[in-house]
Predict the structure.
Amino acid sequence: MKNIIVLVAILILLAFSACEETNQCTRETEITAHINFKTAGSKVRDSIVDNLTVIGRDTPYYNVNNIKSIDLALSQASDTSEFRFAIGEQSDTISFYSKREQYMISYECGFATRFFLDTVITREIIIDSVKIIKSIVDISDETNIIFYF
Amino acid sequence: MKQILYFTFSCIILFCPEDIAAQDKMVKNRGLRFGIDLSDFVMPLFYPETKGYEFLADIQITDDIFIAGEYGVSKTTLETGSYSFDYDLDGRYMKIGINRNMLKNDEKSKNDMVFVGIRYSFSSFKHRASNISIIDGHWDEEIITDTGERSSNCHFIDIAAGVKTELFKNIYLGWTVRGMIRIRLEPDKIMTPYIIPGFGKGSKKASIGFNYSIYYRIPYKIKVKEKN
């Protein structure tokens, strides 16, 4: 009898651990490439960019002052995403080349696209150089790319 | 919420007093007993997306120890509306282990049992998400895609407790409450299964279940000594 009581207690504990969670989507589902700005040269430090405009597919993305990082959504239908960066009167076209893979965030939130960065190409007009830090662009907040000015 | 009510109901049944009397020595039937889970015919009323069947069997090897096993198949279908994609899963599972009869070996309940048991369980399945719609607001794009068929498997432990009682000659009814603990689910970087056949929700590491089954025991009688 004691064994049955102990077993029932275990089953009740398992029941609570197996309880349903909310059916709502509670997670962020937009996936963006996280880009930090740094100064080029022997002493690398955060770079604050003034009067920055970023346009993707003729749609303004950023138009801000005093910014040291940005998040860009890459195209989910193409291996290439192009943005036009302008600081003051100077501008540059920056192309992101990547492979894409759809994966499930959760049943409630659905699927999102994860990117595997291959290269980032600029004409080096306003950006000195580019470095890919983390090639996988997914739901995490980690820095993917550094632009050196 | 459904699962909480379902489990509470099962616990009420578990604690209902059983008229379990027992006495005496006798000829016992130790033949193979096999059955089918009747709750699989009711569960689709609560969870219409999942259908399946489970077959059970046990055989007594000592006065109070039984080798027991279950085999089941399960199919799950989700359609766009519940989620932003269609989903299909097809799988099967097998459980093997032992039950121990906690009843005294006596005449009145000679073919009845109140048991506790443990199983090693294995589930394998194929699943697929299709008509996946992802809308990109910034690039003004919508992509429709498909995961393709993906295979996976899961190992888990099943702890059981229940009752089997002889209703008519060689015909038994019984219920079982189960607690299941997942040991290993084959990793998949694309998606987790909605349901693991034989276990429960794919996102959970522990699960509970309930069977209500009918059995037939092949007659195979032997004489056993009475235990007092």
